[in-house]
Write a structure and sequence with these properties.
By secondary structure, the chain is an alpha+beta fold. The chain is about 45% helix and about 20% strand.
Length: about 55
């Protein structure tokens, strides 16, 4: 469901999650992913098995 997807995204600590119910589009806005240093700090804070691969 949309609510479950949004709850999952929200649990990742992203700044803003928006849902357009008409189109079903989900938009994620996060300063951490706009700032490479902040993204790396956020990635490093996750337990090892939950870490996404480093971007680069």
């Amino acid at each position: 469901t949309h609510a479950a997807s949004i709850a999952e995204l929200d649990s990742m600590g992203l700044d803003t999650v928006r849902l357009d119910a008409a189109s079903g589009r989900v938009e994620v806005v996060s300063r951490a992913y706009d700032d490479p240093a902040a993204a790396e700090r956020a990635r490093a804070a996750l337990p090892p098995r939950e870490r996404p691969p480093a971007r680069g």
